[in-house]
Structures are given as C-alpha cells and as structure tokens.
C-alpha cells in the first residue's frame, strides 16, 4: 500500500496541513498511521466530510409572502390588554386572587372580552398586583 504525506494530502484535498493533522489525531482519516512525529495517509484515502460545512438544504415555503401574517399580527396587537413590556413584567410577578374575589375577576374579564372595555379589568388586576406586592413585602419584614 502506498502512502502520502500530510503536505501531499493537503494539496490533493485542498485543505490546510493543520486541518489534516487534526483529522488524523481524531481518527477520521481511515488507515492513517503515525510514524514518529509524522503521519502517513493511504494514497486512496477518502477526504472526510467536514461537519463544519453547511449541507445544502432546501427549505420549503421561503418564497411565501409573509406580509399578510405581519398585518394580522399588528391587528391582534392592537387588541392586547398590555404592552409586551408590561406583560413581561406582570409575568415575573405572582398575582394572588383570593377565592372570594374570583367571581369579580371573571366578571370583569368577561366584560373586557365581550365589549373591548379593558379599564375595569386593568383596574382590578392592578389592585391584585398591589395587594400581592404588599403581601410579599410583609414577608420580607
């Protein structure tokens, strides 16, 4: 069996010497053997597939016009109760609704949903948040 040097493999495969040394150390070149400090690579060895290179993939649907989806999202965003920032802030807080207040909560939620009048709901949630914060702060005292 005939062997080639790292330099010859580098020229044959069009990759750097150091990359070939790394492939040899990782055992990714079949039949490569180390002789002292040098590597001997079989003449008929196949260049390993480079996992760093992107494989050409074909994505379906990329030619779709998403403007209608963006338009619909904007329409939905117009009807959001809170801005994204406020919603994120509320997500971080614990909202405690006592059992005796649940009927009131569902009533104002229903009004907000059916009439698009969100003021009573926002006012109620604000009250609950203030009460929840008072409760948490009292625990810290």
Total number of β-strand segments? 3
Domain count: 2
Distance between the termini: 82 Å
Strand order of the largest sheet: 1-3-2
Order of helices and strands: EHHEEHHHH
| Unreliably modeled segments | none
Radius of gyration: 33 Å
Given the structure, what is the number of helices? 6
The helix content is: 40-55%
Mean model confidence by pLDDT: 81
Label the structural class.
Answer: mainly alpha
User: Strand fraction band?
Assistant: 5-15%
Sheet with the most strands? 3 strands, antiparallel
Overall shape: it is elongated
Question: What does this protein structure show overall?
Answer:
There is one protein chain. The chain contains six helices and three strands. It is mainly α and 141 residues long. A three-stranded antiparallel beta sheet has the order 1-3-2.
Could you name the key traits of this structure?
141 residues, mainly alpha, 2 domains, three-stranded antiparallel beta sheet, 52% helix, elongated
In a few lines, what is going on in this structure?
The protein is mainly alpha-helical and 141 residues long. Helices cover 52% and strands 7% of the residues. It has 6 helices and 3 strands.
């Amino acid at each position: 069996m005939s062997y080639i040097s790292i330099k010859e493999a580098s020229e044959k495969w069009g990759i750097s010497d150091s990359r070939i040394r790394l492939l040899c150390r990782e055992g990714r070149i079949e039949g490569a053997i180390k002789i002292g400090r040098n590597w001997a690579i079989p003449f008929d060895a196949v260049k390993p597939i480079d996992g760093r290179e992107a494989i050409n993939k074909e994505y379906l649907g990329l030619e779709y016009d998403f403007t209608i989806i963006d338009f619909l999202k904007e329409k939905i965003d117009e009807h959001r109760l809170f801005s994204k920032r406020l919603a994120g802030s509320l997500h971080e807080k614990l909202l405690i609704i006592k059992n005796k207040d649940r009927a009131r909560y569902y009533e104002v939620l229903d009004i907000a949903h059916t009439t698009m009048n969100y003021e009573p709901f926002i006012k109620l949630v604000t009250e609950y948040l203030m009460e929840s914060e008072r409760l948490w702060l009292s625990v810290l005292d």
